[in-house]
Design a protein that fits this description.
Radius of gyration: 26 Å
Number of domains: 2
Largest sheet: 2 strands, antiparallel
Shape: rod-shaped
Helix content: 40-55%
Length: about 80
């Protein structure tokens, strides 16, 4: 559930993890005179953005934990039947 929440918080992107994001900024070619034209400046920021792997890994780990607990409970029941 936590991994699904993190994925949704980051935008529920059906893509892989990102470690940096781009930030586009329009700056004038001649400072103070944007009417003469602008150019796009791309600034890269270091930031983790989760992808579709996040809920899949969470599901996989949850499934493993569930199976381990199921095996432990089954072994305890079998032990109790043999002892009792």
């Amino acid at each position: 559930m936590i991994s699904l929440g993190l994925w949704i918080k980051d935008g529920a992107r059906v893509a892989f993890w990102l470690t940096s994001i781009e930030e586009k900024k329009e700056i004038p070619i001649v400072e103070g005179m944007p009417e003469l034209g602008t150019q796009t400046q791309i600034i890269w920021k270091e930031q983790f953005v989760s992808g579709v792997e996040t809920p899949l890994i969470g599901l996989f780990i949850s499934l493993i934990i569930y199976l381990i607990f199921r095996i432990i409970i089954k072994q305890r029941r079998e032990k109790a039947v043999h002892q009792g």
